[in-house]
Amino acid sequence: MRVYQETFGELNGQTVTAYTMVNDHGMEVTSLDYGCIISKLIVPDQHGTKENVVLGFDTVEEYVKHSPYFGAVIGRVAGRISGAEFELDGQVYKLAKNDGEHHLHGGNVGFDKVIWNTEVVEEDHSVSLVFTYLSMDGEEGYPGNVKLKVSYTLTNDNELQLAYEGVSDQKTLLNVTNHTYFNLSGDLKRDILDHELMLKSTQFAELDSELIPTGELLSVNGTSFDFTAGRKIKDGVEAQHPQNLLAGKGYDHPFVLDENQQKEIVLIDEESGRTLVVETDQPGVVLYTGTQLGEDFEIRGVKSRKYLGLCLETQGMPDAIHQPSFPSVIVEKDEVYTATTKWRFRV
């Protein structure tokens, strides 16, 4: 196993570095110290052909100008916070309104838009990139100085382990995820409508017209949101379910996971033979099917369009700070926040 690095570009006078981890089977993961972005993930198909299965760019400029969070770490809080404010212990904290009247994915300069410190760790059977960042008190409106660590570990089992850790010197909010867009066809040969998804989830969060959870959990039973036995993504695109229509004919929804660390999320592309198994310790996953991808840019020579990739954002529930029935995303002073997710690729 090995790691190599190269200069990816420059941003505001700072060098952006790309690190590529390669295991003994030829699986490659390229990540940037800018936003901890996973810019390439190369795995074989059923014929042994190695291709990239995530959406990303080859220049910093494209990420700055066009990226809808491709491959990035999201924080301090993933998803939307309604009204772009929250209250802790009687104090109201006002956040950036970067999604209409709401706060999205950590604000204007969230974790996805800063350069992290990077350490390479090489073990006998794995290699890791360990990113660290100090998010200062008041950054994007959030309280507390937060020391953050994000680790990406590649193993010889064709598994990428994602681990997040944070400690704050004040009571604050933390709900971190990764926003990689997957397309298992390889090198964007097809869209993701024929991808089949299995989710061990019997409930999903109802959204209002601005894609904010209402607090109600709806049963998947008998709907296009029932992935318990597996179903194709296009089912939700063709469905007349009000929640599918609301999300732009597709999905942008938090699902409550019924199990953890038990192959609870499986994505399959039958034509390439590639399978992605996702396991996590988080209570939910946001399924987003790229319904808002614009058509005004290209992704490595392929015109961007709806349904070109899908996200499986393992995390706490969005807007949990305003929904008492959702698991809390409040972190106490000096409490260690942790979250882990594994992506395992098979053919």
From TrEMBL:
Tell me the pathway.
Carbohydrate metabolism; hexose metabolism
Q: Which UniProt keywords apply?
A: Carbohydrate metabolism, Isomerase
Matches recorded under CDD domains? galactose_mutarotase_like
Q: Which domain of life is it from?
A: Bacteria
Instruction: Show the stretches that span the lipid bilayer.
Output: none
Please write the reaction equations for the catalytic activity of this protein: alpha-D-glucose = beta-D-glucose
Q: What is its EC number?
A: 5.1.3.3
Main EC class of this protein?
A: isomerase
Q: Which NCBIfam families match?
A: PRK11055.1 (NF008277)
* UniProt similarity note: Belongs to the aldose epimerase family.
Name the record gives this protein = Aldose 1-epimerase
